[in-house]
From TrEMBL:
Record's function text: Zinc chaperone that directly transfers zinc cofactor to target proteins, thereby activating them. Zinc is transferred from the CXCC motif in the GTPase domain to the zinc binding site in target proteins in a process requiring GTP hydrolysis.
Species the sequence originates in: Stappia taiwanensis
Ranges of residues in domain CobW C-terminal: 302-364
Protein name as catalogued: Cobalamin biosynthesis protein CobW
Keyword tags: Chaperone, Hydrolase, Nucleotide-binding
Reactions this protein catalyses: GTP + H2O = GDP + phosphate + H(+)
InterPro entries referenced in this protein's UniProt entry, alphabetically: CobW, CobW-likC_sf, CobW-like_C, CobW/HypB/UreG_nucleotide-bd, P-loop_NTPase, Zinc-reg_GTPase_activator
Similarity remark: Belongs to the SIMIBI class G3E GTPase family. ZNG1 subfamily.
Gene Ontology cellular component annotations, sorted alphabetically: cytoplasm
Region of interest (Disordered), residue spans: 237-275
Residues in CobW/HypB/UreG nucleotide-binding domain copies: 12-216
Keyword flag Chaperone: yes
UniProt keyword annotation of Membrane present: no
Length: 368
């Protein structure tokens, strides 16, 4: 479907999805080199961190790299933060004097593309931006072996580490959702399979995408920029047939849902609890300083079963809240530029972790 004349002035936005390890970073790095001359704004999901950020932001020092700027979303689940995080980012980009020529959004593959595409119907965005294409990157070698990703355990861990993600549906359903929402499927890592296997994977993928969706094979994500960009799919106007499992599930009890209530989206839709995982919000007091936060959060992370701690807390004598992100042994703290309501930490872990012990550690602050 081509964008009509009235929409020709819209900024095209490409959504790239695919599981960890499929080759999104490789594909985007290649694209940003290919697309020089275009001003591209890149929006990456937090989980892009696991390999993206460093390499790509550094890559932007490269004069060959077309990325004008890299914007990082603060939460791993776009579908839960469309109103709070994604839309303000888009509004910021399109209100620039020099708006980008193209916007590329990389998602983790765990936050599904459907709610993101729907967000382009939001009033402040719909007249200025259109979804050029949803590009789904597939690990051909993994799929040939009956898996969705080369390292499914890593995908599971990535998912477990973010309380904002849906933990209910099997990972195969997320894969099906990525495929059904695609305007273009890239069968990446084609170098790892023989021609016959590639053909078999192509056929099985073709059976799982919408009619007429293009499927291209790639090695190291190497595709010409005009294969990836300029597809004018206007995906946001073409949601028919794209609905995934995840959405069908969440919409069962809310048929009237539309973008008007996206502001409340995560309050009434997503129940991210799962038997295997638990997340709890702990109200915290005022910490003595960043070292104090790091020590206490590290102690809480050491409690068996804890996978992740994140949030914003108050620090004595500081007007700005300190942001906290802890995954594994790494605890990061920094002062936020904008004043978010501090005083809450979300603790995510395997069900049954010792919450009261963690509360004792994290609540031992200088003031209540
Ligand atoms: N053999 C082979 N390896 C590839 C190909 N594309 C990517 N890789 C490798 O696969 C690994 C994962 O690639 P990334 O580009 O980091 O994939 P990604 O995990 O989707 O990206 P992020 O989730 O953003 O980190 C890296 O070691 C790449 O070098 C390919 O076409 N063939």
């Amino acid at each position: 479907m081509s964008a009509g004349p009235s929409s020709s002035a819209k900024i095209p936005a490409t959504i790239v999805t695919g599981f960890l390890g499929a080759g999104k970073t490789t594909l985007l790095t290649n694209l940003l080199t290919e697309a020089k001359g275009k001003r591209i704004a890149l929006i990456v999901n937090e989980f892009g961190d696991m390999g993206f950020d460093g390499s790509l932001v550094d890559g932007c020092a490269d004069p060959n790299c077309a990325a004008e700027e890299v914007v990082e979303l603060t939460n791993g689940c776009i579908c839960c933060t469309v109103a709070d995080d994604f839309l303000p980012t888009m509004e910021m980009l399109i209100s620039r004097d020099q708006a980008p020529d193209h916007i590329v959004i990389e998602t983790s593959g765990l936050a599904l593309p459907q709610p993101l595409v729907r967000a382009f119907s939001w009033p402040s965005v719909r007249n200025r931006v259109t979804v050029d294409a949803v590009v789904t990157v597939v690990d051909t070698a993994a799929v040939a072996e009956g898996r969705v990703a080369a390292d499914e355990a890593a995908v599971a861990a990535q998912r477990a580490a973010d309380e904002a993600l849906d933990h209910d549906s099997p990972v195969e359903e997320l894969f099906a959702d990525q495929l059904v929402c695609a305007d273009l499927v890239v069968l990446n890592k084609s170098d790892l399979v023989d021609a016959e296997t590639l053909d078999r994977v192509r056929q099985s993928v073709a059976a799982r995408v919408r009619p007429a969706v293009e499927i291209v094979a790639a090695e190291r994500g190497s595709l010409a920029a005009d294969v990836l960009l300029g597809r004018a799919s206007a995906s946001e106007d073409d949601m028919t047939g794209r609905a995934g499992h995840h959405e069908a599930h969440h919409h069962d009890d809310d048929d009237d849902h539309d973008h008007d209530d996206d502001h409340d989206h995560h309050h009434h839709h997503h129940d991210h609890d799962h038997d295997e995982f638990a997340s709890h919000v702990i109200e915290t007091g005022v910490f003595a300083g960043l070292d104090d936060i790091r020590d206490k959060v590290a102690a809480a992370m050491a409690v068996p079963g804890v996978l992740r701690i994140k949030g914003a807390v108050a620090v004595a004598g500081k007007p700005a809240p300190a942001m906290v992100q802890a995954v594994g042994p790494r605890v990061e703290t920094w002062f936020a530029r904008d004043a978010r309501a501090p005083g809450r930490l979300v603790v995510i872990g395997l069900s049954g972790f010792d919450l009261s012990r963690i509360e004792d550690i994290l609540r031992a602050t200088v003031a209540a």
